[in-house]
Amino acid sequence: MRKLIGVMMATTAAAASFGCAQKPPATVTVIEDKIYTVTPDQVMVKAGIVTGEVTELKVAERVEKDSGRVETPAKLTGKLKLTNSSTDQTVRLIAGKILYIDDQGQLIKIEEARTEPALKFSSSYNSTDRLDPGQDMTQSVDVDFPAAALKAKKLKEIRIELAYIPSPYKLQTANFSVSIGGQSASQ
Q1: What range does the domain containing 81 cover?
Q2: pLDDT per residue over 120-148, tens digit each?
Q3: 62 is a domain residue
Q4: To the nearest 5 percent, what fractions of the chain are helix, strand and coil?
Q5: pTM of the predicted model as reported, rounded to 2 decimal places
Q6: What whole-number distance in Å separates Cα of residue 81 and Cα of residue 149?
Q7: Residue 20 lies in a domain
Q8: How far apart are the first and last CA of the chain?
Q9: CATH code for the domain in which residue 104 is found
Q10: Residues facing residue 48 across a β-bridge
């Protein structure tokens, strides 16, 4: 019996010293937002009969502070306001694409695992994909940005390609004769 009690005490002491001991605190990884300014951050654009303005442009990525490892790849954000500048055509917005051009005039490609930067316009009933003459719409821009473009003096321009369908817009009048309460229309 004494042997059994001795073994149990030794087992308890071992469990207390190895299994119940406090573990050292885990190191906390600090992630910080790294914001890159885009100059100018507000630009007027024109694509055929569609004009617009891109505002509040910036590039942001999330980086591990100590190691510099990128936690969340860079994204371009901003606002895009498009206006139908035609006086006689309606515009149906189909799609948009953002291209990044380097200092040599060449396209800077997005990394393989990332999404091509596209603008999507809603196509549901009563949506903003149609712009009548003089109408405008505003949409957020939140697209992937190539890591290669973050290098100093690498990015020269950002290009927006818009696909839209213009269609004639006519306002015509139809008149018709009426009568009220038994009066003839010719009186």
Answers
A1: 35-168
A2: 887 655 556 789 999 999 999 999 999 99
A3: yes
A4: 10, 45, 45
A5: 0.72
A6: 24
A7: no
A8: 126
A9: 2.60.40
A10: none
